[in-house]
From TrEMBL:
Lineage top rank: taxon: Bacteria
Family under the similarity heading: Belongs to the CbbQ/NirQ/NorQ/GpvN family.
Keywords of this entry: ATP-binding, Nucleotide-binding
Start and end residues of each CbbQ/NirQ/NorQ C-terminal domain: 189-272
Name the UniProt record assigns to this protein: Nitric oxide reductase NorQ protein
Gene Ontology MF annotations: ATP binding; ATP hydrolysis activity
Pfam families: AAA_5, CbbQ_C
C-alpha cells in the first residue's frame, strides 16, 4: 500500500522543532521508521525521484538525535568505498574507514540512496548487516565489527525507473522492512510547496494541479513525472519575483525533457494553467 493513501487526520496536533528538517507525514511512515530503528531492523524505501525519501531520512535522523551518513550511489561505487581502504598519509599507509564502517563503529543511520546504481559487490557487503548477525566483516583489516544497538541501515531506490539489469534482487529485498513512497495528496503537496518556498498556498495549488496532469504523461512523452522538489524550485523562483512562465520553463519544462516538441507541449500545459 502506498503511503499516500494513508492520510493523517486533519485535526491531528503538530509540533515544530526548528532543529529538525521539515517533513510532512502522509501516513504512518514516521512511526514505522521509529519501530524499525527500535527493533534494529534494516529499512528499504521505494518511490519515484523527488517524492521526499531523502528529506524523510534527514527528518527522522534529526528527530531521533542520531548522526546520518548519506551515500549517493553511482555506477563506480564499490564495496571498498563503503567499508574503507588503506591510503598513504605522511609517508605511512593507514586504514581509513568508509561511511558504512564509520556508522557501524560509532552508531547512527547509514543511508544508501539509489542503492541499485552501485556495483553488485555493494549489496554483498550489506548482507551480514541485514540479518540477525548485524556484523560487518572487514577482510582487509581482519576485523569483524558488531553493529551497536543504535545503528540502522536504510537504502532506497526508484523501482519505476530502473532498468531490468539494475534491479534489486529478491534475495536482497527480503532482508529489509520496506515502505513505498509516492507523491503526497494534492492538499498535502500544496502545503509542502508553500512551506518550503514561501509562496502562498493558494498560488501553489495551481502548480500542484499542473503536476498532477504532467504525471499522467509518465511513460508516454516523459520518462519521469514532475517531482515535488521541482515544484518547490518553481515556487521559490516565483516567490522571488521571476515571471511564472520563465520560472516554469527553467524548473519544469527544461528538467523534464530535451525534446523540443515535448517541451512545447509542456509549455502549452503551463500556459493553460497560468494563462
Amino acid at each position: 500500500m502506498s503511503l499516500s493513501t494513508l492520510t493523517k487526520p486533519a485535526d491531528a496536533p503538530s509540533t515544530v522543532d526548528a532543529s529538525v528538517p521539515y517533513y510532512q507525514s502522509v501516513g504512518n511512515e514516521c512511526e514505522m521508521f521509529e519501530q524499525a530503528f527500535a527493533q534494529r531492523l534494516p529499512l528499504l524505501l521505494k518511490g519515484p525521484t523527488g517524492c521526499g525519501k531523502t528529506r524523510f531520512i534527514s527528518h527522522m535522523a534529526a528527530k531521533l538525535g542520531k548522526p546520518l551518513h548519506t551515500v549517493s550511489c553511482h555506477d563506480d561505487l564499490t564495496a571498498a568505498d563503503l567499508t574503507g581502504r588503506y591510503l598513504l598519509k605522511g609517508g605511512e599507509t593507514q586504514w581509513v574507514d568508509g561511511p558504512l564502517t564509520r556508522a557501524v563503529r560509532e552508531g547512527g543511520i547509514c543511508y544508501l540512496d539509489e542503492v541499485v546504481e552501485a556495483r553488485k559487490d555493494v549489496t554483498v557487503v550489506l548482507h551480514p548487516l541485514t540479518d540477525d548477525r548485524r556484523v560487518l566483516p572487514l577482510e582487509r583489516t581482519g576485523e569483524l565489527l558488531e553493529a551497536p544497538d543504535d545503528f540502522m541501515l536504510v537504502v532506497s531506490y526508484n523501482p519505476g525507473y530502473q532498468h531490468i539489469l539494475k534491479s534489486l534482487k529478491p534475495s536482497t529485498r527480503q532482508r529489509f522492512v520496506a515502505m513505498s513512497f509516492d507523491f503526497p495528496p494534492p492538499a498535502v503537496e500544496r502545503d509542502i510547496v508553500a512551506k518550503e518556498s514561501g509562496l502562498p498556498a493558494e498560488r501553489c495549488a495551481a502548480l500542484v494541479n499542473l503536476a498532477a496532469s504532467l504525471r499522467g504523461m509518465k511513460g508516454q512523452d516523459l520518462e519521469e513525472g514532475i517531482s515535488t522538489r521541482l515544484l518547490i524550485y518553481c515556487a521559490t523562483l516565483i516567490q522571488a519575483g521571476m515571471p511564472i512562465l520563465d520560472a516554469a520553463r527553467a524548473t519544469i519544462v527544461e528538467p523534464l525533457s530535451d525534446d523540443a516538441d515535448v517541451q512545447e507541449g509542456l509549455m502549452e500545459a503551463v500556459r493553460a494553467t497560468f494563462g
